[in-house]
Amino acid sequence: MTAPRIPFRQPAFLFWTAVSALVAGLSMFHSLTGVTGWEFSFAMSVIAGVSSGHLAALRPSLIRAQKAPFPGAQSAALRLFASAAAVSLLPLVLPVVLISLNALRMPPCNNTDGALFFLLLPVVSSLAATAAGLLCGLLLPGAVLPVVLWFMLVSASFVLSLREVWTTPAVFTFNHFFGFHPGVLYDTVIGIRPALLTFRLSTLAIIAACLLCMDSFLDPATLRLTLRKQAFARSRLIAAAALAAVIAAFQVYAVPLGHASSDARLQQLLSKKITTGNLTLFIEPGTPQQRAMALCEDLLFSLHRVETALGVSAGPLRVYVFANARQKQRAMGATVSMVKPWRNEAYIVWNGPGDSTARHELAHLAAASIAGGPLGLAGRGGGLIPDPGLIEGLATALEGPGGHLELHASARAMKDLGILPAINALSGPGFLTLHSGAAYTAAGSFWAFVMHTRGARAMRRIYGGEGIRRVTGRSPEELEKDWHRFLDGVHLSDPDRRFAAFLYDRPSIVATRCVHEVSRLHGEAADALEGGRCEDSLTLLDEAFRKSGRSTAAGMRRFNGLIRCGDPRATDAGRQLMADHPGVRTVAIREALADARLAAGDAPDPAEYEDLYRVAVSDDDRRRLHVKAALLRMGDAPARAAADALSVVPAPGRSADGVLLSIARFHARHPDEPLAAYLLARQHLRVDDAGPAAELLTSAFEHGLTDEAPELVAEARFMAGRAFYLLGRFDEAERWFSLNRTAGGSSGQAALAEDWMARIRWKKARSR
Q: Mapping DSSP to helix (H, G, I), strand (E, B) and coil, where does residue 738 land?
């Protein structure tokens, strides 16, 4: 009988076609996966990587049973592969149709990248799986054994990818059957990288090797691989040697090509090794000694705070400190700071003393010592099914102060605004669907409350895998009610509520329109602006705004770009943003427009900044607005130049040296003006030049700085405390910090002052 060329009646084919269509159909209703891009392509690649090998492994047995067309004796291996590849690719047709139709409802983000991702991930994965599956079908008789062998092979490849993540610093994974996964959930920069292109070249080389093997050893009569004399012909041996050399070269140079990472590569890049206490740090070889010492001290103190709070002693830890996010991404595939608890390693970008992000990562490592299971993570099955709400919540609870609002004050604000996530939403995968700031803060507040009311031992037991009810005697829902009652007693002002609304009432990354494409466009726009190409930058910002669905964040970036480039459209763009999104951003927009007039020589009325000061919600904004109003009231040219140097959106080409020069001239003109001394001290402390900063701040307070805005006075006290700390004059530093702790400022200021006072006590104890 004549067999059909397309196996519409084969159960395996129908099953995988249905699975592919179902996943594609579900993807259409999510903003992140409903367009062609990495997420959609990766999902299809996982399915294609498994299904194609399964269908190909069945192919020889179907031909032997005459349920599929015989390839013929001439070029049998190539014909067999071509027919099997066609069948394997067919389940991808319906997903392509569905996602293309969905483009009518949800415009694509980047057609070129979308098409390339689909080609490089599911299509090439399907071809690789087809070649491997055919080899399984030709090696073993029947239909069952080849399929079993195939699933063993694809499972082994998955295990090897996990092993790469487990044993090396890499967070990304490349897999010939599954494609590429960047590894980090909150990293928005995912594009077509050279490493993906070269890795897929290695996949094509492996496919070619499989085809050469089939062509050399295939017996067309039996559709089995057998030893044949022609398999050892000179031309075939040369081709085999060439392919083996190519595949071996890709493997040997996997790390330089970016297909893998290694300890040796990181330690070559960060070759300055410092061991202090139970920390081993790897930093750039050219790091100045003063910065290296400050880094060591800060991380040791942060680890001390975390260990003390948890009541644990972490084992030897290794911390890789990168110069910036781009260097980190090139080295290990992620821009964000992160840890691998099972390796006792953290990979961070350090932002100076008191960096809460660095302490957050160290908290993860300290918590690993109390977690059950091999991963050092909290969750079910010994952490094999991680609980992100507990993992990130505990680290957030331990990371210390880092903003305008203290942790519980932020949670109270979200509760008052009706946006505080419920405990059940913070447990399990639901955590990842929330805006990261809201999710981390809410989880951190909850677990800080549990640790405060139940003690560190109870927290260790919960993190180690014991149930909440067993440890505390109360259900999660009952604890949630207790937590809410506690939050009701946390002091909060109306400006703090508005500030929290600005910070937390946003969608998560997984619910953001075209997040990767918009991030790429913003990065290119920033590079163009730094290169002096304003027109190109604004074109990119316009495109990002459109592709984001005219989101507020992208609109603000576009507005800031228009301001920086002096584009007259900035006024209309700002007014439109204020009309569409009234709230906290209104202050930033009005300030930027006033700054633009100042830069153009049309100095705004000081009252304009004073009016904005009264409605601004963050300490930074209020402090800056107060200073600019005061400078404009002075009326002279140096004061106006200093006010212009403080522009919220600096003009292209404005350097830190230029800002310093403007403020130094202002101080020279007004040597007894407390604001001049304060501003110049600020510039000195940016580079840890503590001596002049301490003298200037002392002079500023002697000349009446305490009469200025309370936010400014609070920052000046903090600056004085930090300056005297850097000078080793700890008693004076502690006096300045204690003033901020008790002066009635924001909750964040008080928490920060308390943290630095604890640092001083720790420093004194170490020096005894």
A: helix
